[in-house]
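<given_protein>
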Amino acid sequence: MATLAQKGIESKRVLSAIELVPRHFFLDKSFESKAYVDKAFPIGNDQTISQPFTVAFQSQLLAIKKREKVLEIGTGSGYQAAILGALGARVFTIERQEDLYKKSKKLLHQLGFGNIRCYFKDGYKGLPEFAPFDKIIVTAGATEVPKALIKQLKIGGYLVIPVGKKVQKMQRIIKISEDELRTEEWGDFKFVPFLKGVVK
C-alpha cells in the first residue's frame, strides 16, 4: 500500500480497493507467497496478471464513480475486474481465452462479486449489446485504438488503453462528442499484446 502511494497513486478509493481484494486468490499456487510484491506474474495461456501499480494506475485514470457501467477488455485472472467491482462499478468483462474466461468467472463468483459479468468474446468488438459504457479499460497492448470501443463509449466517457508495439503509451481518451476526442498520455508501460479473435 505504502509503495503504491509512494509511486504516485493518490486515489484513496483505489488504494482501499487494492487493500480489500486479496491478490493471492488470482495467482497460481507457486506464486502465492509473492502475491503482494509489486510485480507481474504469469497466469497461463501466455498471459500475465499485471503488477498492482499498473492495475491501480489504470483504475485511477478511469476515475470510477459508483454504479458506472464499465467495460473491461482482457479479464485475464479477474484481478483488475475485481478492483473495478470493489470500486462500485457495474463491470462487463471480456476474455478471448476460454480457459481463462472459465477460471476467472468461477473465481469472481466464489468471491461474491455479483456486480461483475464475464463474457467469452473477441475484445476488439466490445459489447455493443450493452453499450454505451461510462468507462472502458483495455488491459493488453494495442497497436491501434479499436473504433468499436470508441463507438461504445458514452459522451463524456473515458477509454484507458495502452497503445504501442514493444512499449505502450498509456492513453486516456475522453469522448467530447460523437466527432471529437481528447487524448492524454500517461507514461510508458509493457503489456501482453491485444489480439483479435477467440481461443477455445
